[in-house]
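Worked Example 4.2. Read the sequence first, then its structure tokens.
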Amino acid sequence: MEASRAARRPSRACHGRRKGANNPAQMRAVFSFRPLTHADLPLLHDWLNRPHVAEWWEGPLSFEEVEQSMGRDIDAPLIHPMLVYLDGVPVAFAQWYQVMGADPEWWTEETDPGARGIDQFLANAEQLGQGLGSTMVRQLVTELFSDPNVTKVQTDPAPSNARAIRAYEKAGFRRERELITPDGPALLMLIRRADFEQPSLAVASRADSE
């Protein structure tokens, strides 16, 4: 969907292996999000070239490629890239975007101005498998739905990325359909406001924020 090649890949890399809802690290995790700045690009370049991230990107990426693509997204009105912090330490990248109109080549059939899309990845391989990915996604989705104009949130992992798909399902997303995007095959996954406001998801979202 996004305006740049590099901005596409995180949607295919929500890295988290499901190990149970009672994982202590997952239960304690409270993430915070801040807008990405140009000063963050060297750190982001390092993250994007780590093997567990580059696997789902078109990596390895040069700093010039990251600077060109992500630098453009920093200043884009409909795309909002962010650094994600855990206990005051940057541990992930995330972004959200307005689906309709964010890019002329992506989601051209979308007519709902309330649709939002998300992409994200965890930066540190040692933090995989702790439920942190799905917890981060739930917290991001909760922030997006705090805007009453948001009707649904989507993501589009690669159909072969079973780990990401499980993490998104754990966060409340439902499989919609497979489709071909400018990046290749993808599985469109959605969470609608009505689904998000169901008691089970609402309780999970509140627990993540406490």
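Now turn to a second chain, presented in exactly the same format:
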Amino acid sequence: MTQNLQKTQRTLCLITSSEEATLVLGRALGVALVGTAPMPGVTVLLSGDLGVGKTTLVRGVGNALGAARVRSPSFTLVNEYRTANLPVTHADLFRLEPSDVEDLGLEEYHGNLNVLFVEWPERWANQPERDVLKVCIESRSENERLFDISSLGEAADSVLQNLREAIKDGKNDSGVGLQFTVD
């Protein structure tokens, strides 16, 4: 007897009102990635226009996990950060043609003992289909950002649930209250 495996997707929509709130959301995501146990192998695909806050979100994650000086990998293409809890890999595909992305070997990071963040994932032809968080960021005004976060796969579902709880409980290490509107 064969079983029909259906991919399920869970979604969370949030609105941040400032760059600091986006950093706080990133910190909450960092806490969610560690949860009760680190969630290695999750890939976070970050979509949105230039300057919308993709790297700011990753910087917040890095802050929560103890990574010093998270920077945009626009010119280096891939940055790796070793942290006590969970290694972070951050890739920026903006300057690459889809045919060049294959040479980066991003699939080697997915499912590995780290979390992979990919900016401009639409340029990655062989994106993973499980353990993925898709984060679409849209600018609604000069300071306001809409985050549409969806999960695919058991590990990503757990991270999204941890994020919901962190936001609901107001957990963060910044001293700044979580200032989100759930859409």
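Notes for the reader: The radius of gyration is 16 Å. The first strand starts at residue 9 and ends at 16.
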